[in-house]
Amino acid sequence: MPEQPPYLRIADVLRRRIAEREWMPGGRLPSRAQIGQECGVGENVVRRAQELLISQGVLEGRAGSGTYVAEPRRRVRVVRSSAREQRDDSPFRADMQAVGRRGDWESRTEAKVPAPTEIAARLGFGEGDLCVRTVYEFLADGKPVQLSTSWEPYDLTAGTLVVLPEGGPHAGAGVVNRMAAIGITVSHAVEQPEPRQATSEEASLLGIQKAALVTHIRRTYYSDQGRPVETADIVVPAALCEIVYEIPVDRH
């Protein structure tokens, strides 16, 4: 078995010392030089170990001050369920209400945006075909906890009251209800979740460390005719949210 890289070994040492309450939540760690001397490694090894633990939410770095044990935070539960799409109100608001928080979102929509290659493939049409793109920041008590970028085929909703997802009489009603308003039945959605590290922009918007762990969900809604009617990239930070899937049971 290959030997464990030194920074991973030091990360385990730091994690154990935190678990044993040698350093309490909110407490400042000794300098990298001191930790390196205690563990018999260089400061760069300690730095890499601390960066790993920061990305995992165990530690937090404060510019000009040092590295601290992260305070425990109650994570928001995000429920993924097709049944919740039928609610009159937003499923996100319902999730926030369940944990005693106020759920809301901010959005920015652009119409007639050419589809990038991946988005065009997910929507089943040609690269450069026009879309309506909406960028969302979902907020819990006014603080961002989730990001989403939604793409809808422009030719599907152009000239209708639902062409702008957050405008008109059906603003904020969600994909399923908005499509129903123009006679399109959404039959199902496909979601592909995968873990990755946050980009610099995502980290800045979410108030998390750069390269912190997030779950990236690629979601696509389909009509009962099999046409993709919307696709989205949803980014959920592991330090702020836990994802729960509700799976309907077929009793037949």
UniProtKB/TrEMBL annotation:
The alphabetized UniProt keywords are: DNA-binding, Transcription, Transcription regulation
- Highest taxon of the source? Bacteria
In this chain the HTH gntR-type domain maps to 4-72
The family database entries (InterPro entries) matched by this protein are listed as: Bact_HTH_transcr_reg, Chorismate_lyase_/UTRA_dom_sf, Tscrpt_reg_HTH_GntR, UTRA, WH-like_DNA-bd_sf, WH_DNA-bd_sf
Protein name (Swiss-Prot/TrEMBL):
GntR family transcriptional regulator
